[in-house]
Amino acid sequence: MDEKPFRCEYSATQLEHLKQHMRIHTGEKPYRCEVCEYSASRLDYLKRHMNSHTDEKPYRCEYSAYSQLAHLKQHMLSHTGEKPYKCEECEYSTSKPGDLKRYIQTHTDKKL
């Protein structure tokens, strides 16, 4: 059995993971950008943000380059045709979560 000695409503196996998690509750953002007003709860978030101040785009496909891995993964769906974001009320699906969020409004606007 995997012992989890540090606890919140959630559990963590390492103290550092618990500290990171607790920042969700406290809103603490100790990592600050030296260029702008951005601050982050985790160092890796700050490092990812720093790419926005440079032209560095290390994540690439054959046609495009991105500063964040998540953006490349999102873009790659356009190559595969995969549409993992599905409407719960109809058959609509899309490759972009923002498109789904906007589309769902068509159902709520009709009900008003």
UniProtKB/TrEMBL annotation:
GO terms for molecular function: zinc ion binding. The keyword Zinc applies. Keywords: Metal-binding, Zinc, Zinc-finger. The keyword Zinc applies. It comes from the Eukaryota. Pfam families: zf-H2C2_2, zf-H2C2_5. GO terms for cellular component: nucleus. Signal peptide: none annotated. This is Zinc finger protein 513. SMART domains: ZnF_C2H2 (SM00355). Residues 8-30, 31-58, 85-112 form the C2H2-type domain.
